[in-house]
């Protein structure tokens, strides 16, 4: 099953150039995913969400979306693995896009077979539409000019709190080195998207300490305290 029948009835318009498309967003951050939801809403696309590789693969067994946007850092592995799988699949998803806030991630995503890349934070409707339309086959792109407001999207602050609650759960198990690697990159990405520079710096410091082989207990304690501050509304985004 795919969205061919849907697309036959819904044609792109000047204000909603992604009308008729179904976009699967593989993203573990609820805050980042809410931004994608708002971008899809403004553009006319339908959105479905998977928060890990396992969930994404279940989705893809049931239907074929028009486009897939895959975060490279996921709780159960690298999004680059899923990009590679989809790039080699037949029939192929029309547009496979990677997303991340890490400087090296675009190169990794394109090497795995992605058709394009979205840098986080993604808040511009024009940027979002341009990257997706640029990755689609020519016959799937709308003709003529597009009329769009490029006011930035503002994700729900409650989604940010959900991310903080998730991070707090992960930080409870500080003996799991893989979980600590994950929570560092997860919080760095969420903080970057939310403009929370203090939290982002603390998450990046944890990642740097791990990579250098330095003790990380003080980094973990600071990160856990910052997460709790945001959960108890002592810091507003």
From TrEMBL:
Domain Response regulatory span(s) in chain numbering: 22-135
Q: Name one Pfam family in it.
A: Response_reg
Residues bearing PTM 4-aspartylphosphate: 71
Query: InterPro entries from the xrefs?
Result: Bact_response_regulator, CheY-like_superfamily, Sig_transdc_resp-reg_receiver
Question: Per the UniProt entry, what are the Gene Ontology biological process annotations, in alphabetical order?
Answer: phosphorelay signal transduction system
Q: Which UniProt keywords apply?
A: Phosphoprotein
Alphabetical list of PANTHER family matching this protein: RESPONSE REGULATORY DOMAIN-CONTAINING PROTEIN (PTHR44591:SF3), STRESS RESPONSE REGULATOR PROTEIN 1 (PTHR44591)
Q: What is this protein called?
A: Response regulator
Supply the source organism's classification. Bacteria, Pseudomonadati, Pseudomonadota, Alphaproteobacteria, Rhodobacterales
